[in-house]
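Write out a record, fold above all:
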Amino acid sequence: MLENIEINPLLERLPPHLKQFIKPQNYELYTYQDQAVWRHVMRKNVDFLSKVAHGSYLDGLKKTGISIDNIPSMYGMNRILKEIGWAAVAVDGFIPPAAFMEFQAYKILVIAADIRKLDNIEYTPAPDIIHEAAGHAPIIASPDYAEYLRRFGEIGSKAISSAHDHEMYEAVRKISILKETRSEKQNPELDKEIAAAEANIERLQNKDVEPSEMSLIRNLHWWTVEYGLVGTLDNPKLYGAGLLSSLGESKSCLEPVVEKRPYTIDAAYQDFDITRKQPHLYVTPNFATLSEVLEEFANTMAVRKGGHRGLQKLINSKSLGTIELSTGLQISGHFTRMITNDDNEVVFFETTGESALAYREKELIGHGRSTHKNGFLSPLGKLKGINLAIEDMGPRDLQAYNFYDNERIEFTYESGIKVEGLNVTGQRNLNGKLMLIQFTDCTVTYKDEILFSPENGMLNLAVGKEIVSAYAGPADYYSFDLVFHESDTKTIKPVFSKREITIQGLYEKVRNYREENKINKPLLEKLKSQVENEYPEQWLLVEEIDELIG
């Protein structure tokens, strides 16, 4: 996938599960009409945005290799972006939010290679190269904003999603594709599909579900990266890509009818509708404030708080996630169960299916999916009647409490969970804290329930007083085969009719006249008359001809 992209060290660092989303740009598939659409939007935008956009916009266009006259190529963008420490890749429409944010964490701009059709020239619900390249790219010329974008990706990629999030993602992807489908005439079947897709989105939006971390941080992303304003409430400047790439909304957003709100963490709890213009927008005084609010929100996330709430979020998500214990031991898998005590502290947890153990994001040797193919479980907490936590015990402490290698041992946690088995060995972290103990012929019980029995094999007991972090995805991405994502909805590539092919030929002819500086007014007047009579909907072609006629 990377053979046609200018070599950029950032691209080489990408893990396989992100590389799977990279698609060839196929620059040769852009039509002459596509080039005219790009040129029209950019000429209008640059003229208007030079007055109302953040100060880094114009300089950013140059620094990111974006010209007014031609759709940018990934090759050219990467050659120039490399100088400011970023890169760019082409993808197919919307990709999952977690993947999008993780690309940002690697300082890589994700660019949907398609371009909006003429009917949607002012605004498109689908991500396209105008939105991604001309909207997102220029503002990263501001170092404060670029760091915010990177940090947002780092934090956002750890946000825990829900099944509802995935449904919403597929629904939004579908409607954006349908609305951007090329068609030269009325299509009742397509209209029906769009109506059904809109009804499905409305159903999902009205569904009474508790917002997940991903849905909340996605709101923050929308109200900043996509639709953010910066400055004062009375005189804001545009920096959000959705505004910078929309001919219509870049102007209408500044009108008094659009409410301007001070940007705070409250924006995380304000939903949005991707298919309509925004009735309100948030204004940050500067880009540093964006980072402050992001850190404030991150302090509410399970990745920093851990505990029973964090683990419960992972259980509810039914997706691959990770918990980290106070010893630094990381357990990745699909979490299905926990037991808590009266103080809501987790005293037992369990995963199902393939799981893996890691430390500092690196899989522990011998503790990958093949070892833990049927899941992983362990009690947590302190031992009953012993003030010293297991993780804080040195070799002499362990001997004092009869934790001898190759000796049978029985002990009880404060929670009442009992462990009895043959102690084989232990494993410590870099700080010398015990984080894993192996037992054979082992039984774990809680009240009248057997949680683990000898026929289950070897017990790998996780050592830790508490869960300090919980987040989406594995600790070590190489522990799991994550190269599998295929959206249920595919983008629709245009198939041109004879009429449309003829129109493309006219756009080509006009472009060649301009580039070769062949200004034959009588010939151009005749061509204009032909377009107006035979192709009255091609107003952009008429505009291109008028520009040459003067």
